[in-house]
Amino acid sequence: MMNSKRMILKAAGAFALVATHPLAHAGALEIAGSTTVQKAVIEKVASRAQAAGMPLKMMGVGTGKGMVMLFEGRVSVAAVSDELVNAIASARKAGATQVPDGLQMHEITTSGVVPVVHPSNGVAALTHDQITGILTGKITRWSEVGGADAPISVVVPAEGSGTRGYIGKKILNGAAFTASAKVMRTSAAELNALRRDPNAFAVLGAGVARTAGTGVKPIDGPKFTRPLALVTIGGPNPEVAELLKFLRSDDVQGLLAAN
Q1: Which ranges in 137-237 belong to alpha helices (H)?
Q2: Is the pTM of this model over 0.85?
Q3: Same domain membership, residue 43 and residue 99
């Protein structure tokens, strides 16, 4: 009987610990924005967050659309994969007409972007100039960079994507993408295009490329790094503050270090 009482007390104590967690009975925290943050951060930590009483719902709509949803009050936090000024520019391209005051960016980690090709492509590495040449249409055949004599099919993210904004500013230095580029709305669509087309080329977030499996091949190139972050209007509310504390913990940062 005494053992049964102890078990009941233990169970009651465990319930009390869960119930007193600040987010234990809250609905899932909705985050909208970067698909790179979705793949490289949120999907990696979702089960741990759930176990810690912080269920998360990630809407991978791209940096710009996520910022628009934040501005419109549809979410309390947006996920971005670039500096704040560039995330705001992506929001404008995604349709934002007004930008609220007091935006705060909360960096979680950093991530690279990498050139990616079809697994059958024999090219092993590209220089910065070669990547720029391909993306702008100055280089149009794989034979110009040591590959097969075949046309290059350039795949790029849609306007409003944080990755597209980062590539445009940091890799292309403001130059335009080739007019023949195939524009994809999501990173999943980019991956599918790369898997289908032996001549395809894209620059993807490292986290997206690494979770793609064997259907695509990242190749060597220069190191480009950008922040992965959450954005709030003013300071984070208690729910978001708790999430930031969780994401910045040593255990989670160790998990994210491969980005």
Answers
A1: 162-166, 187-196, 206-210
A2: no
A3: yes
For residue 192, being part of any structural domain is answered with yes
Per the rule left: phi > 0, alpha: psi between -120 and 50, beta: everything else, 137 is left
Nearest-5° Cα angle at 65, 187 to 110: 60
Nearest alpha carbon to residue 130 among 168, 158, 172: 172
At 72, is the secondary structure helix, strand, or coil? Answer: coil
Mean pLDDT of successive 10-residue stretches along the chain, which has 259 residues? 40 33 64 92 95 95 96 98 93 94 97 93 97 98 97 94 90 95 91 94 87 81 93 97 97 83
Say if residue 99 is in the same domain as residue 157.
no
Residue 151 corresponds to which amino acid?
P
Asked if residues 117 and 131 have their Cβ atoms less than 8 Å apart, the reply is no
> What is the full DSSP assignment across 97-110?
----S-EEEEEEEE
CA distance 226 to 124: 23
Number of C-beta neighbours around residue 113 at 10 A: 27
Both structure tokens of 196: 């289908």
